[in-house]
Amino acid sequence: MRKTSNLRPWAVWSTAALTALTISLSPIGTYAAHAATEVKGTTSAVQTSTTTPARNTSIPAVPDSSKQSALPNVLVIGTGGTIAGQSEDATSFQNYKAGTLPIGEMVDALPDKQKIADVSTLQFGNSGSGSYSMADLYDLSQTVDKALALYDSVVVTTGTDTMEEIAYFLDMTVQSDKPVVITGSMRPWTVIGSDAQANLYNAIKLAGSGRTTSFGTVLMLNDTIQLARGVSKTNDYRTDTFETPMLGAVGYIDEENIRIYRAPARALKPEGTAKPVFDLSKITKADLAKVEIAISYQEAGGGAIEGFVSNGAQGIVTSGTGAGGISRAMGQARTKAIEEGVIFVTTTRTGSGSVYGGGKGIIAGDNLSPQQARVLLMLGLSFSDDFDTIKKWFETYGTPEV
Q1: Helix (H) or strand (E) holding 79
Q2: What residues form DSSP beta bridges with 121?
Q3: Residue 104 Cα to chain centre, angstroms
Q4: Quick check: pTM over 0.85?
Q5: What is the pLDDT of residue 402?
Q6: Mind telling me the catalytic residues?
Q7: Sign (positive or negative) of CA dihedral 265, 271, 273, 279
Q8: DSSP letters for 318-360
Q9: Helices 370-383 and 163-173, interaxial angle, to 10°?
Q10: Which one, of 207, 163, 243, 166, lies nearest residue 75 by Cα?
């Protein structure tokens, strides 16, 4: 029997208004005190905590009522970001504290969710996306996989600043074929016209639909479905910021209609056969490799590469001009670093286009962005120190042709 709820469509707006009023009258609550928060605005500085916030990895049990329901069981894992942001007032679109509101309260405020799924929540953390370390993402990925052993699908809410890296890390490491949907927002939860509520609702709807089974991790923002691989944040304020250069979106959500127009190569293979090789249960967080990004520009020096190497980098991604070119000084520093065993991946800083070729110690990054190429190189070096093996992974996982 379908369960009913006493929530009303106005609940989300009354909650937002009340929250906005509360913040103007009282200090930020417990969640903000433990969060590494970011403050958006033209004059506000980014704020970070002095201690690493605790990460909750305890998976809640599926409620008995949900087990008896015909609706899909969806777990929403909250990590903070703008979507959990509390604004200075109801019209402060850019001045707010990200990673403030608890995910449980946000989900409770969504109207009509009982029509699409039985939803449970887990507060993994409550920080801006840039506050998470790669070790945190290791824990997040493991948490998602464990949750998928119990739930039909998982939604992860994050900040948008490094969402493309978080999504790609999950895409390359989560072993389950069940749907994983990542979402966030460009406006905080507590302002008029926020995209936060619609994005969270649609992400739950998409996850529960099962339409992205075997797709890996996908993004759902602004009614648009994007694959994790290749997606990029292209604007710092607009709600349609996420795009996939050259390849485009995979589908859209228009109220009751979920349209999928293309699929990744892994979805075309038999279920269970296209799992990423990067099974984090086989390594520890201490095994995660150190990988950096060096950008080329007019008369760029080699100091960045030299500094990264001296600081222990095992791999470096170059964000080059045009089809991946780097300056002479950078090239000289790269040659020396390769002799010391550092592996390089070459990408373009243009925002789109493919990089081919490679050479001794150098792997072509195809059309991966520098930041996503860094994630793949880091995982490659975490699982192998063999250049040819890592190169093969870039030619398969990094270049998922059909």
Answers
A1: strand 73-80
A2: 76
A3: 20
A4: yes
A5: 78
A6: 82
A7: positive
A8: EEEBTTTB--HHHHHHHHHHHHTT-EEEEEESSSS--B--EET
A9: 30
A10: 207
